[in-house]
Amino acid sequence: MSNLDREAVPALCGGRGFVVAEPVRELLSPRRVKLGESSEVRRLLPNLGRRMVGAWCFVDHYGPDDIAEEPGMQVPPHPHMGLQTVSWLHEGEVLHRDSTGSLQTIRPRELGLMTSGRAISHSEESPRSHARFLHGAQLWVALPDSDRHTDPRFEHHSELPVVTAPGLRATIVLGGVDGAASPGTTYTPIVGADLALVQGADVRLPLEPDFEYAVLSMSGEAHVDGVPLLPGSMLYLGCGRTELPLRAESDAGLMLLGGEPFDEELVMWWNFIGRSNEDIAQARSDWMESSRFGEVKGYDGNRLDAPNLPPGPLKARGRVR
Length: 321
Ligand code: MN
Description:
The protein is mostly beta strands.
């Protein structure tokens, strides 16, 4: 999906100054963002309270939306730079096209992983004939400076490793949990896992003390480290944990996001991640001049124009969380 915000404001992210070195329980409220005319997403990252969790720098939760009588998701071709996108569905399906020639339908609990590297463009749409409900998350992972100019590529992994415990089924999206590792390519120490809990589950999930973590709730009612978490909200957990207590009041769907705190400071604007104002301005003008980002073939509609850059140079907004 895309950041369709027409009032896109640059955000400075990253750097260890943001990271909490000890276990905390910080509840992050979503910001409601309109996507197109009818649909709305809940944006958890970047958040006024927190910009990143490891290399995870963008988290939108959407649905479940009844799209039986509607076209559903229709995100026209748009560019990305300096990041990976993770498409994760609980219900429905998304047809992905990109400028490397990919044409892939992504289904629930399959990983659609797009590495933009220096430049890619893509579109995402509900197939013409689609399931009644659409429910998922769109996440971005920042690429480190050493890899942000890499070649663009798209991976689709329909078979992901699963770790189970009584009442818990954890699908490993990126990185590893308890010895099971996702086949998805990663560029920093990171983890993403889908946690399906059965009502009454009371389990402890092993964690890496050097990682910072957050848990996004997608459905049901669960307690994460004792904190009740409702769908569309996220709990930031800090670092220094070796395990995470999870309890389910009803069947519940959570996403665990974590990673080594992201050291580098970066500039995030619209669908781009760079290291400077110049990076961002260059990417914007390349997209508007139809260079560098390639072409998405087969999408029935126009591509997205970039919003205007705010006047004046990007200014450091300090370490305000
Ligand atoms: Mn996108």
